[in-house]
Design a protein that fits this description.
The complex is a heterodimer of chains A (233) and B (234).
Chain A (H helix, E strand, L loop, with lengths): L6 E2 L6 E2 L4 E4 L4 E2 L3 E4 L2 E4 L3 E6 L2 E6 L11 E9 L3 E5 L6 E4 L23 E9 L5 E4 L6 E3 L2 E5 L5 H5 L4 H10 L2 E4 L4 E5 L3 H16 L6 H12 L2
Parallel strand pairs in A: 4-8
Antiparallel strand pairs in A: 1-3, 2-7, 3-6, 5-6, 7-8, 9-10, 9-12, 10-11, 12-13, 12-14, 15-17, 16-17
Helix pairs in contact in A: 2-3, 2-4, 3-4
Chain B lengths: L17 E5 L7 E7 L2 E12 L12 E8 L14 H14 L11 E11 L4 H15 L9 E8 L2 E4 L3 H4 L5 E9 L4 E5 L7 H29 L6
Parallel strand pairs in B: 4-5
Antiparallel strand pairs in B: 1-2, 2-3, 3-5, 6-7, 6-8, 8-9
Helix pairs in contact in B: 1-2, 2-4
The chains are: A alpha+beta (233), B alpha+beta (234).
Chain lengths: 233, 234
């Protein structure tokens, strides 16, 4: 006997709230931000629903950053021990950069770890392993990680980060292009801006704040492009 | 004399005019206001954050902690600020009313702190508080399997009513107050308290009325949550 095919009850990018039905039938699957109850798939969060064939996801619109494997984060070195460095990145517990993942260079036995990153330094590192909320390992060895110096840090809402980066980095490269600044966006909502003229840095901050404010509007890239052209004259 | 007509002219199964708003407190992770007639509750959620004292931390599951308080100016006679026997009890029942819907398995060692404050009290403050807290939790991005809707039912004189006011609670021939919290999707009850006397039959009737009334609260909560992100998505 053939089972009845499931039905998807929402559209792509529809705003949903907790407990809202996304789909029916056992042939659909719950992704992140969704769960199954009997033969229904329901939302866990306030967010935008995404349909990926038979996988239903909800991307949250609010709330704090939750650490995830493979995310690049920006954080501050707050502790140095025998094990390596500890990084504060806006989560209740610190991430650990173990000695063996501390640098692309070779770290000799008994080296002064402050020569690499000292207290108060900011780093862009990559999360390699999330075991629990207290055990988060990060690495400085993989591409895209670096020590950050001579710049300014701004904190944005973590749920706006995908919009600040844009599709294939279109938004962030637009801002970089107009301001000649070096910008690192951490998935945790920490943005590091350095290089360029001081007033250009401020312009970059303004543009990022604008993106954060109007994150849900349509045609945002054009709007920001116009804004940057007007302001940089 | 029977209680033939309600003091404010409502029908017996009608809720007071309600209002809800999400995102009212800037520095909180999530926040909401819920108004039922003259009762106004605000709720703020902070978290996930570190739990103190640390022996309360649970590595396998996050903590949900609620702090309910009435503002000193919320009642006619000044309420002395700070926790009381009553506010401690309401904090605990609010926690247990919300706990079944929140999935905290990914938040080990951390906790969500909910602060519920009553700005203006006219009976049903714990129900307004739970409605506001559920909205604030959803706004804070906590994974929730459902919303929680709460309303008081009860008996005024000899009539079963929904959403009693203070005037009705103090009715001269006696009144019973029965606050409930319901998960709107399944109809499961997560809060059930009673102050007064009712027969089994009356309680059943009151619960049915309450469950019906809760649907309009859910509609308003959904609207409030969606209004915050107007223009987002489709």
């Amino acid at each position: 006997m053939e089972e009845k095919m499931g039905k998807i009850l929402i559209e792509e990018r529809q705003l949903v709230v907790p407990g809202e039905e996304l789909a029916e039938g056992m042939d659909n699957l719950p992704g992140e931000g969704a769960f199954r109850e009997d033969d229904k798939i329901l939302s866990l969060k306030v967010g935008l629903a995404h349909i990926d064939n038979r996988l239903l996801k909800v991307v949250p619109l609010g709330g704090k950053y939750l650490p995830k494997d493979g995310d690049t984060i920006v954080g501050k070195v707050v502790d140095i021990g025998m094990y390596g460095w500890r990084v504060d990145f806006g989560w209740p517990f610190f991430a650990t950069i173990p000695l063996r993942d501390g640098s692309r260079e070779f770290i000799p036995n008994g080296a002064d770890l402050r020569q690499y990153y000292t207290f108060g330094d900011y780093v862009a590192c990559k999360i390699t392993k999330v075991v629990g909320s207290k055990i988060i390992d990060a690495s400085m060895k993989v591409p895209g990680t670096r020590k950050l110096s001579n710049g300014r840090l701004i904190k944005v809402q973590p749920t706006r980060v995908p919009r600040i980066i844009g599709k294939q980095g279109s938004m962030i490269s637009l801002i970089k292009e107009h301001t000649d600044c070096f910008i690192v966006v951490g998935q945790n909502g920490y943005v590091w801006i350095s290089g360029g003229e001081p007033d250009k840095q401020l312009l970059a901050v303004k543009a990022i704040r604008q993106v954060e404010k109007e994150a849900h509007g349509e045609g945002l890239t054009d709007k920001i492009s116009e804004f940057l052209k007007k302001e940089s004259k | 004399m029977t209680y033939a007509k309600r003091f404010d002219g409502r029908k017996f199964d009608e809720i007071r005019p309600m209002e809800a708003k999400v995102g009212i407190i800037k520095r909180a992770t999530g926040s909401a206001m819920f108004k039922m007639g003259n009762t106004i509750a605000i709720a703020a959620v902070y978290g996930p954050r570190d739990v103190f004292p640390s022996f309360l931390q649970n590595p396998s599951r996050g903590l949900l902690r609620c702090h309910y308080d009435m503002m000193s100016f919320s009642v006619t006679e000044r309420k002395r600020p700070g926790p009381t026997r009553r506010s401690n009890e309401i904090s605990r029942v609010t926690e247990s009313a919300l706990f079944p819907v929140v999935d905290l398995s990914k938040f080990g060692n951390t906790g969500f702190d909910i602060y519920v404050n009553i700005l203006q009290a006219d009976a049903g403050t714990r129900t307004a508080g739970i409605n506001a807290a559920a909205l604030a939790l959803a706004d804070a991005g906590a994974p929730m399997k459902d919303l929680v809707c709460s309303v008081a039912v009860g008996k005024v004189g000899d009539k079963i009513c929904v959403d009693l006011t203070k005037e009705e609670e103090d009715y001269k021939d006696g009144a019973t107050d029965l606050p409930i919290a319901v998960l709107p999707r399944s109809g499961k009850i997560t809060l059930l308290q009673m102050d007064g006397n009712m027969t089994q039959k009356e309680i059943k009737e009151a619960l049915e009325m309450g469950k019906k009334a809760v649907q309009s609260i859910k509609k308003l909560q959904v609207k409030a949550l969606k209004d915050k992100y107007k223009g987002a998505g489709k």
